[in-house]
User: What shape does this take?
Amino acid sequence: MRSPDERSTPRVLVVGAAIVDDLARPGRLLAARRTRPVETQGLWELPGGKVEPGEAPQQALHRELVEELGVELRLGDELPGPDDGCWPISARLTMRVWLAELSGGAPTPDDAHDAVRWLTAASLDDVPWVPADVPVVDVLRTLLLR
Assistant: This one.
């Protein structure tokens, strides 16, 4: 629950893509290793980024994935979080996440990421995740086990 002070400060919306190998039968999840900022350097994340003013969240997700990994996506269902459908990141940031699969391009690291890796349910714990993505990854683990 947010305090009254936190409620008066507008939160910045971030979008993330849980890129799986197959929307109908997900078996693997794509993770990207951050190079910056220092606080998250070397940690793995679901790729995405901030929604720009006037931009729809899904548009932002498509834009961010082209910019970050050079890929196009087919979006699936949104993974609703516990905070009015969003996943809390901090007092200032909140995130919406969609399942997605690649529809064009091959994931290629950029200056914000130095590696990408496909993970199975069994290998999700082989990498250190950014703290904000841990609860989302826990939900994804059950999807990958089906």
Observations:
- The first strand starts at residue 12 and ends at 19.
